[in-house]
């Protein structure tokens, strides 16, 4: 598997949570050909698109100040053929599975809670791996929020 250059860690504080923007992710693919692209919209939003294959993965380096559980909120934009694709969000100590959902368009995301993930203290990787693309295309990723479990939700 090919991995793009690592980026600086995004700081994650259990008291406040963190946003993982799509354009801060490293991209890895099974075949070594990196084609996902960053889409930039006129209103300043950003998404990662063109994920088409099982094992395409987005990876963020996160600096976690204190180990803990985080509720994972994912924002995706999907047209009909992108809905229902499967993914796994992972840390070094836990993972959760989910499926994408239909929105108005890949450029019009909606945000949903998709599960809970434990993160260890220190710098670690959080990844979103494509595990199934039944219709040949994965939803555009508009970001992941890691919100301290039991804390208040971050603004979208």
Could you characterize what this model shows?
- By secondary structure, the chain is mainly beta.
- The chain has one domain (2-148): Jelly Rolls.
- It has strands at 2-3, 10-12, 18-20, 26-29, 37-40, 46-49, 57-64, 68-77, 86-90, 95-99, 110-119, 122-132, 140-148.
- The strands form three sheets. Strands 1, 2, 4, 7, 9, 10 and 12 form a seven-stranded mixed β-sheet that branches. The chain has a four-stranded antiparallel β-sheet with strand order 3-13-8-11, with no helix packed on it. Strands 5-6 form a two-stranded antiparallel ribbon.
What's the total helix number?
A: 0
Helix content: under 10%
Q: Name the CATH architecture.
A: Sandwich
CATH class: Mainly Beta
Distance between the terminal alpha carbons, to the nearest Å?
Answer: 33 Å
Give the CA-based shape.
Answer: globular
Strand content: over 45%
Task: Provide the number of structural domains.
Answer: 1
Chain-wise SSE layout:
Layout (H helix, E strand, L loop, with lengths): L1 E2 L6 E3 L5 E3 L5 E4 L7 E4 L5 E4 L7 E8 L3 E10 L8 E5 L4 E5 L10 E10 L2 E11 L7 E9 L8
Parallel strand pairs: 2-7
Antiparallel strand pairs: 1-4, 3-13, 4-7, 5-6, 7-12, 8-11, 8-13, 9-10, 9-12
Features of this protein?
156 residues, mainly beta, Jelly Rolls, 7-stranded mixed beta sheet, 4-stranded antiparallel beta sheet, 0% helix, 50% strand, disordered N terminus, disordered C terminus
Concise overview:
By secondary structure, this protein is mostly beta strands.
